[in-house]
């Protein structure tokens, strides 16, 4: 019965698990020695996560696929140029509406890379350019490992109170960049084994994200997170996220047509250029904002992720129906 209910839900199992982790953290947060142990477990989980990312992304395939450079540059432009510009422009207004930490979280979500699996899946459902989506989404995540921290340092360290010391940079290198590079180097030997055990591996990386969410929100609860966030702020963030997704979908549907892209390419641009990765953004936040209110900072990204899944799922299904051949009379 529960399986049937979940299968009909607009929320996928991964998102439901994340929401459950938030609920558990709200009522049963990690405390004391257990919290200390989980901190070390999270460090290992983040390193494992980015190691797996490194083994999955094939640099050669990504480079060979870059021949459609206009498509990829357009998608990267939406992800790492237009999104951050919107985030910076909205930041002063959002500070007054939802507060400093949540507005910082809204800015942070505009800086993270695109999703991989859902971008490709939605492009496929909508009958778009799937090979182009695979390359662009992969390159976005590949570049995001380097670009997102740089954008955070550039756009957030001055006004938001986020400061980066030598220790935090070393932590970033050891927990994110080094495992990713090691994964790239070991890919020829590790990738075949991971391909044979793709299903268990999926649960490993998704489980890591759920763990990161639980630990981050446990810390937030210990610091009085829910006393700092009102129901009105959550509603307001949901409205802002919904408007932002709709605006980006409209822009990414309008501009490519003006630039002469085909329907298939336009669909790939829409679903790759407007998505933000929860799987990459959450672990990065625990490293980049160590010592800050990580729970508050990642909350807008979690809300945005859910909104984008629902709206993009509807749009992809609509495009797919439009592309179906009309039966002969």
TrEMBL record:
<feature type="transmembrane region" description="Helical">
    <location>
        <begin position="12"/>
        <end position="31"/>
    </location>
</feature>
<dbReference type="InterPro" id="IPR038770">
    <property type="entry name" value="Na+/solute_symporter_sf"/>
</dbReference>
<dbReference type="Pfam" id="PF13593">
    <property type="entry name" value="SBF_like"/>
</dbReference>
<keyword id="KW-0812">Transmembrane</keyword>
<feature type="transmembrane region" description="Helical">
    <location>
        <begin position="231"/>
        <end position="256"/>
    </location>
</feature>
<keyword id="KW-0472">Membrane</keyword>
<protein>
    <submittedName>
        <fullName>Bile acid:sodium symporter family protein</fullName>
    </submittedName>
</protein>
<feature type="transmembrane region" description="Helical">
    <location>
        <begin position="75"/>
        <end position="94"/>
    </location>
</feature>
<feature type="transmembrane region" description="Helical">
    <location>
        <begin position="37"/>
        <end position="54"/>
    </location>
</feature>
<keyword id="KW-1133">Transmembrane helix</keyword>
<feature type="transmembrane region" description="Helical">
    <location>
        <begin position="277"/>
        <end position="303"/>
    </location>
</feature>
<dbReference type="InterPro" id="IPR016833">
    <property type="entry name" value="Put_Na-Bile_cotransptr"/>
</dbReference>
<feature type="transmembrane region" description="Helical">
    <location>
        <begin position="106"/>
        <end position="126"/>
    </location>
</feature>
<feature type="transmembrane region" description="Helical">
    <location>
        <begin position="133"/>
        <end position="156"/>
    </location>
</feature>
